[in-house]
Specification:
The complex is a heterodimer of chains A (198) and B (571). Chain A contains 7 helices and no strands. Chain A has 198 residues and is mostly helical. Chain A has a single domain, classed as Cytochrome c oxidase, subunit III, four-helix bundle (Four Helix Bundle (Hemerythrin (Met), subunit A)), CATH 1.20.120.80. In chain A, helix 5 packs antiparallel against helix 7. With 571 residues, chain B is mainly α. Chain B has a single domain, classed as Cytochrome C Oxidase, Chain A (Up-down Bundle). Chain B has 17 helices and 2 strands. The chains are: A mainly alpha (198), B mainly alpha (571). Chains A and B meet through helix 1 and helix 5 of A and helix 6, helix 7 and helix 8 of B.
Chain lengths: 198, 571
C-alpha cells in the first residue's frame, strides 16, 4: 500500500504532497529571511550613521551575480519544461547551464568576500554592524545556493536515473527543486538592493 | 500491507523506522525522559531555595564543593530547566509524539506524507537534545542566561550559551520538518468523506500548532544565528556601544540593540505558548467528548476560536516587554491585542466546560486528568490578564507571580492534558490497560502538590519577590513575610516528584501485563479506535482504509443501538 498523492494531484487541493510541502517550507523560509530583514531595519534605524552599501561593496560584481541568478532561474524552468515535453537531453543541457550559473555566482561571491578580507584594514563581520549583517545575510544565502547546487547536481547525475523508472515523479521533483531555486533567487533580488544600493 | 512481508531487524524496525507510530513512540519516550530530567533539575533548585547555603542531599556531590549549589550553577539549572521542559519535553511530547502517532490514525492515513522526513525530524530533535545536554560538561557549565537568553548577558556568558544556540538551531530545524509533515498529511491524506468540519478536534489542534511552529520558529532561528555571530565571530548585533562589563569597556564595534533579540525571541515565544496549549486542548476535548458520552458543545466555535487564537498570537509578543520603555501607543496596541486574544481562549474553555453539562460522566483516569486541566488552565489563563496590562505588569514583571502564571498554564495545564492523553491512548498503543487505582492515586496526589508548588508563587510574587534569585529572596526585606512559603513549595515539589512514581510503576506493570485484545475499550467514535487493531498494524495501520460518513463526536445519537456511532459507520 502506498501513500496517496505522492505523484498525482489530490483533486480538491490540486497539488501533490511534495509540492505542497515545498510551498510550506518556503513559507517558513520567508519568515527566516523576514526575521533577518527586520533585524537589518531595526539595526539601521537604531543608529545615526549607517554606511552606504557602495562604501564597502562592489556593485558591478553584484549586478553580474544578479544576472547569473536570474538566468539560472530561467534555465531551471526550461529544464523542467523539457521534461514535460519528454526531452531528456535538453533537460540535461539546461540543468548543466543552471549549475554553471550557480557556480559562477559562488566564484564571484568568493572574489567579493576575499577582497573584503584582504582590504587594509580588513573588512570583517566584526568591523561594524553593516558588514556584520552583510556577511550574515549573504552567507546564509550562499548556504542556500550550495544546498541548491547539491540537490540540482544530484538530479543531474545519479538522481536522473528515475527518469527511466518513474518519469512523472522525476518531473515533479525537478519542479520542486525549481520552486526552491526561484525562492533562493528571489532572496537575492531583495538582498541586492537592500545591501548594495540603499 | 502486513508487516511480515519482509523481515526487519530490531534496528530497522525500532530505531531507524519510518513508521509514524514507532517515531511517535520514540518521541514520546525521549521527551518523557527529558521531562523527568528537567523536573529533577528543579527539585535540586528547590532545595537551594528552601535551605540556602546548606549541602544538597543525594546529588550534592555532583554539584560543587561541599555539596553546595553555587549561584552560577543555580542560574544554569534554571535556564536549562526552562529550555528542557519546553523545547525538549512538552513540545516534542505534545506535537512530536501525540501528533505523529494519532494524526494519521484519526484521518485514516496509512502513514505521514513524508515518512523519511519524519524520521529525520526525530533524529534531528534527538541530536539537538544531546547537544543541549553536552552544555553541562563544557567549561563554565550549561547556558546560564535564562531560557530567554537575553543579551548582553547571554553574549558575555560562558561557552554553554554557544552550545545552547547550536542545540536550538537543531531543534528549530526538527520542528520545521515535523510541522511541514503534519500540515501536508492533514491537507492531503484525509480519507474519503473526512471533510474539514468532520475532523476530530485533536487533528485541528495539531494542524494549527504546525502552522504556528512553521511560521513562528524561523525568526528565532534568525535571532539564534545573529547571536551565534555575535558570540563566535565578534559582530555586535545585540551589543550596544560602550558596554561596560565588570569595570571594563567592551572592545566590540557596538551599535547593536539588545531589544532586537527580545523582539525576535518573543515573536517566537508567544506563539510558542499556544504551541504548548493547543495540543492540550485537543487531547482534553477528545477525552471529554468520549467520557461524557455526548457531542462536544460548539464544535465549530472551537475550531474558529482556535484559528483566531493562532492568528492573534502573532501580534501580542511585545506584552512580554512592557518594562523595556516602549511608548504608550505601542503599549496600548499590545494591551488591546492581548485582551482580544483572551476571548478565544475563554470560548474554548467554555465549550469544554459546557460539554460536561448533562453528560453521564465516566470518572476514569484520563477523564480525571482532563477535568483537572480545566480549572488549572483557567487559573493560569486568568492570572495572565493582569500581566497583559502594562500598569499591573510593571509591578508584577519578573516576580514569582509570572512564574506561577505560566506554570499553571503549562504544568497542571498542558502536562495534565498530556498525562490524560497517555492514559487514554495507552490501550491503543499497547493493546493493554493501565491500572485505574494507580492512575487515580497519580492524579489526586499530582493535583494537590501541583497546587502546593504553584499557588504560593502568586502570594510571593504579589509581595514583590523576584524570580531568578538563587537564595529565594532571603536578602530582601519585602520578602521576609512570605519567605516561609519557599519550604512549602519545595516540599510540594519533592512530593510531586514522588507522586510520579505511581505513573512510572503503572506504565511498567501495564506494559508487562497481558493483552486485552480490545479494539475500542472506551467505546469511542474516531477512526483510530473503531478501525484499527490495538496496537495498529505495522506499516499500513488499517486492514481496509476506512471511509468517513459523519462527524467525530456522534455519541448517544437517538435511535442508535449503541451510545456511540463510529465516524466510519455508513449513514
Amino acid at each position: 500500500m502506498d501513500i496517496p498523492y505522492t505523484v498525482k494531484n489530490r483533486p480538491d487541493t490540486g497539488l501533490y504532497n511534495g509540492k505542497l510541502g515545498v510551498w510550506l517550507f518556503l513559507a517558513s523560509e520567508v519568515m527566516l529571511f523576514g526575521g533577518l530583514f527586520s533585524a537589518y531595519i531595526f539595526l539601521r534605524t537604531g543608529v545615526d550613521d549607517w554606511p552606504a552599501g557602495t562604501e564597502y561593496l562592489d556593485v558591478p560584481l553584484a549586478t553580474l551575480n544578479t544576472l547569473f541568478l536570474i538566468s539560472s532561474s530561467v534555465t531551471m524552468v526550461m529544464s523542467w519544461a523539457s521534461l514535460k515535453l519528454n526531452d531528456f537531453k535538453k533537460y540535461k543541457l539546461y540543468t548543466l547551464i543552471t549549475l554553471l550559473f550557480a557556480f559562477g555566482f559562488l566564484v564571484i561571491k568568493y572574489f567579493e568576500y576575499s577582497a573584503k578580507f584582504a582590504h587594509n584594514p580588513p573588512y570583517l563581520p566584526s568591523t561594524n554592524n553593516f558588514l556584520g549583517i552583510y556577511f550574515t545575510m549573504t552567507g546564509l544565502h550562499v548556504l542556500h545556493i550550495i544546498g541548491g547546487i547539491l540537490v540540482i547536481g544530484y538530479f543531474y547525475g545519479p538522481g536522473s536515473k528515475m527518469w527511466n523508472s518513474d518519469p512523472e515523479r522525476f518531473t515533479n521533483r525537478i519542479e520542486i527543486v525549481g520552486l526552491y531555486w526561484h525562492f533562493v533567487d528571489l532572496v537575492w533580488i531583495f538582498l541586492f538592493p537592500v545591501l548594495y544600493l540603499l | 500491507m502486513s508487516t511480515d512481508q519482509y523481515k526487519q531487524s530490531f534496528w530497522t524496525k525500532y530505531i531507524w523506522s519510518t513508521d509514524h507510530k514507532i517515531i511517535g513512540i520514540q518521541y514520546g519516550i525521549t521527551s518523557l525522559v527529558w521531562l523527568l530530567f528537567g523536573f529533577g533539575l528543579m527539585m535540586i533548585m528547590r532545595y537551594q531555595l528552601a535551605y540556602p547555603d546548606t549541602p544538597v542531599p543525594i546529588v550534592g556531590a555532583l554539584l560543587g564543593e561541599g555539596g553546595l549549589l553555587p549561584p552560577e550553577m543555580y542560574n544554569s539549572l534554571g535556564a536549562m530547566h526552562g529550555t528542557i521542559m519546553i523545547f525538549l519535553g512538552v513540545v516534542p511530547l505534545a506535537f512530536g509524539a501525540f501528533g505523529n502517532y494519532f494524526v494519521p490514525l484519526q484521518i485514516g492515513a496509512i502513514d505521514m506524507a513524508f515518512p523519511k522526513l519524519n524520521a529525520a525530524s526525530y533524529w534531528t530533535y534527538f541530536a539537538g537534545s544531546v547537544i543541549m545536554a553536552t552544555g553541562f560538561f563544557v567549561p563554565g557549565g550549561a547556558a546560564n542566561s535564562g531560557w530567554t537568553s537575553y543579551p548582553p548577558l547571554s553574549e558575555i556568558a560562558t561557552m554553554g550559551q554557544t552550545v545552547w544556540l547550536i542545540g536550538m538551531v537543531m531543534l528549530i530545524t526538527s520542528s520545521l520538518l515535523g510541522s511541514v509533515n503534519i500540515l501536508v498529511t492533514v491537507i492531503q491524506l484525509r480519507t474519503d468523506g473526512l471533510t474539514w468540519m468532520r475532523l476530530p478536534i485533536f487533528v485541528w489542534t495539531q494542524f494549527i500548532t504546525a502552522f504556528l511552529l512553521l511560521l513562528a520558529f524561523p525568526p528565532l532561528e534568525a535571532a539564534g544565528v545573529l547571536q551565534l555571530m555575535d558570540r563566535v565571530v565578534g559582530t555586535s548585533f545585540f551589543m550596544p556601544s560602550g558596554l561596560v562589563v565588570t569595570g571594563e569597556v567592551m572592545t566590540n564595534a557596538g551599535g547593536g540593540s539588545p531589544l532586537l533579540w527580545q523582539h525576535l525571541f518573543w515573536f517566537l515565544a508567544h506563539p510558542e505558548v499556544y504551541v504548548l496549549i493547543l495540543p492540550a486542548f485537543g487531547i482534553v476535548a477528545e477525552i471529554i467528548a468520549n467520557n461524557t458520552r455526548k457531542p462536544l458543545a460548539g464544535y465549530k466555535a472551537l475550531v474558529y476560536a482556535m484559528v483566531f487564537l493562532a492568528f492573534m498570537s502573532f501580534i501580542v509578543w511585545a506584552h512580554h516587554m512592557y518594562i523595556t520603555g516602549m511608548g504608550t501607543s505601542i503599549g496600548a496596541f499590545f494591551q488591546t491585542t492581548t485582551m482580544i486574544i483572551s476571548i478565544p481562549s475563554v470560548v474554548i474553555l467554555t465549550a469544554l466546560l459546557l460539554s460536561l453539562w448533562g453528560g453521564s460522566i465516566r470518572f476514569n483516569t484520563p477523564m480525571l486528568f482532563a477535568l483537572g486541566f480545566i480549572p488549572m488552565f483557567g487559573i493560569g489563563g486568568l492570572t495572565g490578564l493582569p500581566l497583559g496590562l502594562a500598569a499591573a505588569d510593571i509591578h508584577l514583571h519578573d516576580t514569582y507571580y509570572v512564574i506561577g502564571h505560566f506554570h499553571y498554564v503549562v504544568a497542571p495545564g498542558t502536562i495534565f492534558a498530556l498525562f490524560a492523553g497517555i492514559y487514554y491512548w495507552f490501550p491503543k498503543i499497547t493493546g493493554k490497560r493501565t491500572n485505574e487505582l494507580l492512575g487515580k492515586l497519580h492524579f489526586f496526589f499530582s493535583l494537590i502538590f501541583m497546587n502546593g508548588v504553584f499557588m504560593p508563587m502568586f502570594i510571593q510574587g504579589l509581595a514583590g519577590v523576584s524570580r531568578r534569585l538563587a537564595d529565594g529572596g532571603q536578602t530582601y526585606a519585602h520578602a521576609a513575610d512570605v519567605i516561609y512559603l519557599n519550604e512549602v513549595m519545595s516540599y510540594s515539589a519533592w512530593l510531586l516528584g514522588l507522586a510520579q512514581i505511581f505513573f512510572i510503576i503503572n506504565m511498567v506493570i501495564s506494559l508487562f501485563g497481558k493483552k486485552t485484545g480490545e479494539k475500542n475499550p472506551w467505546d469511542a467514535t474516531t477512526l483510530e479506535w473503531t478501525d484499527t487493531t490495538s496496537p495498529p498494524l505495522g506499516h499500513g495501520n488499517f486492514e481496509i482504509v476506512p471511509k468517513v460518513y459523519r462527524g467525530p463526536y456522534e455519541y448517544s445519537v437517538p435511535g442508535e443501538k449503541q451510545d456511540f456511532t463510529p465516524q466510519s459507520k455508513k449513514v
